[in-house]
Amino acid sequence: MASDAVVAATVEEVDCVEFLKRNFPPSSLDADDAGFLTDATYLRFARARNADKKKASDMLRACLEWRKEYKPHKVAQDEVAKAMQQLTTAVAGCSLAGQPIVVMTIGAQNSCEVEERVKQIVYILEEALRQGHGRLTWIIDFAQMGKHPHDPRSSVTRKTTMKIMQDYYPEMLGTLLVYRPPWYISLLYNVVKPFIDKRTRKKVLFLGHDEKLLLKHVAKDQLP
């Protein structure tokens, strides 16, 4: 397997990728969605399950079933136009690592319903894949937290999108930058940290309120 997508793969991962390709060829999806099953996609699912063929197969199978039902590749820009105008989730430029930047502002007001918000995240992920980006830089900005009345839809949205990202778009997290968090967020993270796999932990960076640390990862003119 000579694809650039798997140059850095281990022997076990390459073996798992080949197994997935044999059992889940592009014809497993509708013709207009077959492009989802690239070498990079197979590798992400293999890595997400540590090259365990059965676990990776189960994960990919569930993803393909979801794609056939939800049809994420057909989510159009005009369907998420209203959500894109909100301040809670904004697509910016590219990080210094060349990854698309998504800024999520915790606590910002959002007039969209949960379905619209979730569809926006799906659109962002699909658009990144269409442009050849397998990883994104996420900035979680807590600057607005506590400044507006609590919106219960936000919690539902986060729970739903977290599941979608973990189950159907694994290994697309390039870097997670936690910016301007209240003091207790790091304490909560330290509680759950032991349950997060080592590869993911390395991608999570707490920046405090220091803009200089943020600018080590993203140029100012690339932020919304």
For the structure shown, list the relevant keywords.
224 residues; Phosphatidylinositol Transfer Protein Sec14p; 5-stranded mixed sheet; disordered N terminus
Brief sketch in words of this structure:
The protein is of the alpha/beta class and 224 residues long. The chain has helices at 11-23, 39-48, 53-70, 81-84, 114-130, 152-168, 183-192, 198-201, 211-214; strands spanning 89-94, 100-105, 136-141, 173-179, 204-208. The model is unreliable at 1-6 (pLDDT under 50).
Can you walk me through this structure?
The chain has 224 residues and is of the alpha/beta class. The protein has two domains: 11-73; 77-222, Phosphatidylinositol Transfer Protein Sec14p. Helix content is 43%, strand content 13%. The protein has nine helices and five strands. It has a five-stranded mixed sheet with strand order 1-2-3-4-5. The chain is globular. The model is unreliable at 1-6 (pLDDT under 50). GO terms for molecular function: phosphatidylinositol transfer activity. This is Sec4-like phosphatidylinositol transfer-like protein. Residues 79-224 form the CRAL-TRIO domain. InterPro entries: CRAL-TRIO_dom (IPR001251), CRAL-TRIO_dom_sf (IPR036865), CRAL/TRIO_N_dom_sf (IPR036273), PI_Transfer_CRAL-TRIO (IPR052578).
Walk me through the topology.
Elements lengths: L10 H13 L15 H10 L4 H18 L10 H4 L4 E6 L5 E6 L8 H17 L5 E6 L10 H17 L4 E7 L3 H10 L5 H4 L2 E5 L2 H4 L10
Parallel strand pairs: 2-3, 3-4, 4-5
Antiparallel strand pairs: 1-2
Helix pairs in contact: 1-2, 1-3, 2-3, 5-6
